[in-house]
Description:
Elements: E1 5-10, E2 13-18, H1 29-40, E3 48-53, H2 74-94, E4 99-103, E5 106-108, H3 110-117, E6 120-124, E7 128-130, H4 141-147, H5 153-162, E8 166-167, H6 168-174, E9 179-181, H7 186-197, H8 202-215, H9 220-236
Parallel strand pairs: 2-3, 3-4, 4-6, 5-7, 6-9
Antiparallel strand pairs: 1-2, 7-8
Helix pairs in contact: 1-2, 2-3, 2-4, 3-4, 8-9
Amino acid sequence: MPSSIVIEQKDVVLELVLNSPETGNVVTEDMAQTLEQTLRNVGSEIKLLRLRANGDHFCRGRKSPPIDRATATALAFRQTIAEGPLRLYQAFRACRAPIIGVVQGEALGVGCALAALCDLTIASETAVFAVPEMDHGIPPTLVISALAERIPYKAISHLVYSRQRISARQAAEIGIVGQVVPPDSLGTASDELVDLMLKNTAAALQGVKEYLRHAARLEPDAQVSLASSIIATVLSSQNR
């Protein structure tokens, strides 16, 4: 039986491929755990990761684990429903190397969150993004937690309350996506970005991600201090 996630290291690039096209790459608990563990164990030699998906769709959401909604406590809901996705989202943020997301087809719910959490995201101009959980009476607070640091308040509110499916161009306007290309150029565009980034050292690429991750939450003086610390560390490293 084929693996639902294909992981392949190609020299200093780690390729991650969602491989359940028959479900639209709906993320299961096993898939989420595999992704989380992979991201947390990225070595210092890895320059970048690329997250792609086989089939027509990037990711059409998440398959929630079974739970008895009639008897489950709030703690049970938190442990069963919430903690897994939140750990996965944190693994995307904490992964030491930048992650390139390559999106085609639908990116719904968790799929939209993963697209937003990638450090760089390239989407086909025919891709569609949505947060449809409210159709099922579920407040998508977990997905919102991933989007909140990436896109503006009003954009999140509109996605969540309206359930509107937005285009790749619209997703780029609000910050989910960084680049939109024709469908037949998606692979080429991601390859070109990978090749460009590979011209830099792992230390430089990882340093940029570290700064971007922390700087917005810091006071100006701390931003300056972190900036000088990271650039000094990178430029003085033996692998520059």
